[in-house]
């Protein structure tokens, strides 16, 4: 019987485990560093945390949810949904909680997994479902250690902190910031928002579902999926879709912000789609409130009671809230992975890469969920994760068919895949500016898939024997 270990219990870990368990793989064990399942939806509890993909599409196809209370569900609802799915499919009972994986070493046809408490486990197959958005990132600026006030990060929020009546700085204006800023503005005495570059923001077609409609909301899945596929087409800078998105974002800004100087600061200077397109109805209005100030400059220095922005002025604050995202380039952060191919992080020194975003040559029986070049500019990541889970299960089926003990992608197959992906990315909007999608040293786009979810599903739907080594 094949033993399978999965690192992480977010959407990727739960979805992969459910796929394997429902297809006869019974020796499935999961390791979770926290005390509950949920991944980013357990960890991101900042004010206003919610999905920017409609709920009917942000759920497993094999476990539709009839309990969403609104079109764009909030963090607590998503976490509760994940918990129910994990319980229903036997994932929770197979999870070892409080188990932080620190190493994985291939030896004698098995992965030997080490934990931070000194214990080890061995499995035939190892699946990483740690994802791309698990390690919060913040800028390293002068005087940082001297700050005497409260410091928070969107990815590791302290719910016990009360910011009522305080002078608060929010660093960053990305996806989490557009949710945090309106909520903090309701309680802060003063709010200063630091922006390095403006983003394209579209209206958010959100709203509460009436009780009678909730179990019917899943009918929205197909039309929502069609709309999100168009966003993927908008990554082509010459497309009609890109022009439409640009015009919609510009009209939304003009409607919500009357002040010409503020509107000028909020006007993106990059091509639409190069950075993540955001959705919000209340972010722009919040920035026009009397006690809220947008500073279109980066954080430069910190002292005990204030921060200095790159344009020179100091701003006295009681708290700093970082909405600066995650370390997206260090895949499998904090885990030392060694196999016949050597040290995985050394192999990825110029940027992570994997065949189909799942297989790394030189590392047999290692699979990645939400691996390199599988992030999206439009659509639901859940669709990608389900496609990867099906592919992983099908690969294990083929391994059994061949009577093999191990499988790994051929280097030449991975190279062909990578050449195709990087060629398409070079002609996309993502290549036109600097963003978190790029490796900081090589500039390689390691995060994103250059297309829609349907093209990726087709690409990984079959296991082509000639692309792999079966031993």
Automatic annotation (TrEMBL):
Q: Which InterPro entries match?
A: FAD-bind_Monooxygenase_sf, FAD/NAD-bd_sf
Provide the transmembrane region boundaries.
none
| Protein name as annotated | NAD(P)/FAD-dependent oxidoreductase
């Amino acid at each position: 019987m094949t033993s399978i270990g999965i690192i992480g219990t977010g959407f990727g870990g739960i979805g992969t485990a459910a796929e394997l368990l429902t297809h006869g793989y019974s020796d499935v064990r999961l390791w979770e560093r926290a005390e509950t399942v949920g991944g980013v939806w357990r960890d991101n509890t900042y004010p206003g945390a919610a999905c920017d993909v409609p709920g009917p599409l942000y759920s497993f196809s094999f476990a539709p949810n009839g309990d969403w209370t609104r079109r764009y569900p909030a963090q607590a609802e998503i976490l509760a949904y994940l918990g129910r799915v994990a319980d229903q499919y036997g994932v929770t009972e197979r999870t070892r909680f409080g188990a932080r994986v620190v190493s994985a070493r291939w030896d004698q046809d098995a992965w030997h997994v080490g934990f931070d408490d000194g214990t080890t486990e061995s499995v035939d197959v190892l699946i990483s479902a740690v994802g791309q958005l698990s390690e919060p990132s913040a800028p390293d600026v002068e005087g940082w250690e001297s700050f005497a006030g409260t410091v928070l990060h969107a990815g590791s929020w302290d719910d016990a902190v009360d910011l009522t009546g305080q002078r608060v700085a929010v660093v960053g204006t990305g996806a989490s910031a557009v949710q945090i800023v309106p909520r903090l503005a309701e309680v802060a005495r003063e709010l200063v928002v630091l922006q390095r570059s403006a983003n394209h923001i579209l209206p958010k077609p959100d709203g509460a579902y009436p009780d009678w409609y909730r179990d019917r909301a899943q009918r929205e899945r197909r039309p929502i999926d069609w709309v999100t596929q168009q966003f993927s087409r908008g990554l082509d800078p010459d497309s009609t879709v890109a022009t439409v998105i640009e015009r919609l974002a510009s009209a939304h800004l003009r409607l919500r912000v009357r002040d010409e100087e503020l509107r000028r600061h909020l006007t993106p200077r990059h091509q639409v789609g190069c950075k993540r397109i955001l959705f919000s109805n209340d972010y722009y209005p919040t920035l026009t409130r009397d006690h809220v100030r947008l500073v279109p400059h980066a954080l430069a220095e910190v002292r005990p009671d204030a921060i200095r922005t790159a344009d020179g002025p100091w701003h006295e604050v009681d708290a700093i809230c970082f909405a600066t995202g995650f370390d997206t380039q260090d895949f499998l952060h904090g885990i030392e992975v060694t196999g016949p191919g050597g040290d995985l992080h050394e192999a990825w020194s110029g940027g992570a890469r994997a065949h189909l975003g799942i297989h790394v040559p030189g590392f047999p029986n290692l699979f990645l969920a939400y691996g390199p070049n599988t992030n999206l500019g439009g659509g639901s990541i859940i669709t990608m994760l389900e496609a990867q889970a099906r592919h992983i299960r099908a690969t294990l089926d083929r391994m059994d068919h061949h009577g093999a003990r191990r499988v790994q992608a051929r280097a030449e197959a991975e190279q062909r895949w990578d050449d195709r992906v990087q060629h398409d990315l070079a002609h996309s909007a993502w290549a036109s500016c600097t963003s978190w999608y790029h490796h900081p040293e090589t500039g390689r786009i390691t995060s994103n898939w250059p297309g829609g979810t349907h093209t990726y599903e087709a690409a990984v739907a079959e296991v082509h024997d000639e692309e792999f080594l079966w031993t």
